[in-house]
Amino acid sequence: MGEFSVCERVQVGKGTRIMHHVNIYDCRIGDNCKIACFVEIQRGVVIGNNCKVEAFAFIPSGVEIADDVFIGPHVAFTNDRVPRATGDWEITKTVVKKGASIGANCTVVCGVTIGENALIAAGSVVTRDVPNNALVMGCPGRIKGYICACKNHLDVKSDSKKENRIICSKCKREIRINPK
Length: 180
Fold this sequence. Notes:
Layout: E1 4-6, E2 11-12, E3 17-18, E4 22-24, E5 28-29, E6 34-35, E7 40-41, E8 46-47, E9 52-53, E10 58-59, E11 63-65, E12 70-71, E13 76-77, E14 94-96, E15 101-102, E16 107-108, E17 113-114, E18 119-120, E19 125-126, E20 134-137, E21 142-147, E22 153-154, E23 164-167, E24 174-177
């Protein structure tokens, strides 16, 4: 482990690597994670197993990250819908589900859920819930397609409002796509 600041009541799982200049406070980080340089993880954050959090990510109180999640460099989560310099924070929960990937320089506005295996493209701004397996791009983030956990793009009509069951042509997994 590198130079970093760890406050009391931090739980770090077996096999987790924490690089230099990381600040973590009263949070839980699972097994076999990698936390890169200059990351801040605030009080009450929960990070699952096998996650990668890249350099300069900011993860404030109210964020829950499931297993197998990638958080790219310079990703910023928010945790108060109407922040002010004075007064207490009103923390709003944000959830990132298993296998999701959030690209470099993304902003995730509080109060959203990012679905399983969703992929948020670099530079996107997430302002609303992201369904499982969705590929989201832009500012504000919009669904541009769907992707399997194996990284294969799925052939789904993005204008469809109904649930679809798709078989991935690469890994043969059955995936339920619910665009709502």
